Each structure stands twice: as structure tokens, then as C-alpha cells.
């Protein structure tokens, strides 16, 4: 449990006020509720299957697909309500009941894409231009500075992705492990403000984060954005501890100060506190939507099945909704823009959007 603050309440170090928002939750209040679970009915699953057949039986180019190309008469309005909860409510939702076991991998990918296009614009997730990501162990190690942790079986630790909303579809879970953990970065902000406002102030100052070899033309191999950013009455987080540390490999990046290390350690301590975070196990057909600006997400290390066809496999979308929150201009260094609907993702020279359905 988190110990009470011993910091005098008047020593706020010029910080923004405590954030009172639905995204500032703790584990107990979330775990006792099922409000964050949305189960699809047979009719809505049928709409998705009709959309898949529509794509398979036509020459629709998925790279330029629009919502009108894959109508979901009753599911689309429900998805918009889900998105509202993700963007302006608790910050995450899990959708269940997609029958991925009876679909081919290609059909599941098309179904996921057809649902995603009703939520926002797709953003490229890596230097290869993938707008549909495949999250699985590629036998790599995070010790390789050009490897991103989702390509390994290692624990990811609590972090954000470089987009407004990340969406995952579970095709196959791991043999053991690979659990998802979510924690409110808004709650962490509030708790740090109460306990150690001096350390919170450190995390509201610019800090370098490694791009892991995916560098836009003319940019540095790292970006420099505070972990916590207060803008327009909202606090938005951007965080990946391992990449903050690996940015120290560049000669023009200074070592972390003692204050920065202490602040990052406290953030991680709070993120790992079971009274704050919510852990869940993915089942085939589960879709998890997470708002990166208010939620940190983690994945535990996992053990895979030896058979290739049984190995853990998730699909991923990075989305830019048109109704996303305002972001401070400093986010443009990583997001390319702060314009809702046209920001986020990884953009490097020569990359064009590609959709690897069968990877």
C-alpha cells in the first residue's frame, strides 16, 4: 500500500492542481466493476463478419479504407461510445466475444481493421510502415538498441505507446504469463504531487527518450519531452523507462541525475503497486483499447508454446481519433503534429503505410 504523504500541503512547488477526472482511478474501484467490459452480441458479430466478406469479395484497398466501406450498422455507434469512455472516462475498455478461433488469421486481421477504422485514423507503428502491428516474440533482446520490447518475450514494464489510442486484439495467449497490467498515470501524477511534489516537478521537465533506431529525417535519435505534461487543464503522460535509460548511450545526452533516478523510481513504484494497477489475462477474441495519455500499460514476461501455430500472437493498431484531447506543442517532436486525427506513430524517410495481414 502507498504510505500517506509527509510533505506539507503548502509546498506544491508551483505544480498544476490535483487532477479530478474519471481517469484517476485505483485498482479496487475498477476490479469490483465490470463496466469496462463490453461483450458483443450475435448480431454485432454478424456485422463484423459481413464486413470481412465485403472486403474479401471486393477490391477494397485496406490502406485507404474508410468507415463507409465497411458499415457496422449497430456496432459502429457502440464503438463510438466506447471511444468516448477511453478518451474522456477511465481510459480503457475491453471488448469481448470476437470468434477469432473460427476465422483465419487473415480474416481476424480484416475484422480488426474494419472495427478500427470506425474509431480513428491509423498510424504507422515502425520503420517498415506497418499500420497493422503483430505483437509476438521474434527471439530478440531489449539489450539490442534497435529492438523494441514488444518484439521480445520480456516484461515490458509500464509505459505508453506513441499514439493517442493503442488497440490490441488477442489471437492466441501465451502458454504462461503475458498478462496485461494497466495503471492510471493520472493517479500516479496525483499521488506524486501529494507525496513528493519535488520529484513530480522533475518529471515535468524535459527528458530524453531513445527512438530505438527509428529516426525521422532531420531528427535526433531521441526525443525530449517531459514525462508529465500539463496543458489545457489536462495532464498527459509519455513514458518508457528503458528507452529513457538507453538514450544515455548518445554522447550529447547527459547521464540521469540523482533526482531524475529517484523520480523515475517513485513513478515505477507507484505503477507496480497492486493497490493502483489492474492486471488482466487476455483470451482469444479480446480487444483492449487504452488511452496512452492517461494510462500506462505493461505486459509480464511469458513462456510460449513450442509449436509455431500456438505461439502468443496479438494484433495492434495505433489510432489518432479526430476527437482526441489537445496536446502541448512539445509532443510534435514525437507525434509529428499535435493536430487531432493526424498525429502519432513512427515516420521515417521512405516509409509508406503497409498492412501485413498474414505476418
Salient structural properties:
359 residues; alpha+beta; 3-stranded antiparallel beta sheet; 9 helices; 16 strands
Explain what you see.
With 359 residues, the protein is of the alpha+beta class. It is 25% helix and 18% strand. Helix 2 packs across helix 4 (105-116), helix 5 (185-195) crosses helix 6 (197-203) and helix 6 (197-203) crosses helix 8 (258-271). The longest helix is centred in the N-terminal third of the chain and has 15 residues, at 42-56. Mean pLDDT is 92; it is low at 1-11.
Report the portion of residues in β strands.
Answer: 15-25%
Query: What characteristic shape results from the CA principal axes?
Result: globular
- Find the count of extended strands (DSSP E, 2+ residues): 16
Main beta-sheet strand count, sense and barrel state: 7 strands, mixed
Radius of gyration using CA atoms only: 20 Å
The CA-CA distance between the termini, in Å, is 43 Å
Mean pLDDT: 92
List low-confidence stretches: 1-11
- SSE ordering: HEHHEHEEEEEHHEEEEHHEEEEEH
Instruction: List the total number of helices.
Output: 9
DSSP helix fraction: 10-25%
Q: Which class of secondary structure composition applies to the elements?
A: alpha+beta
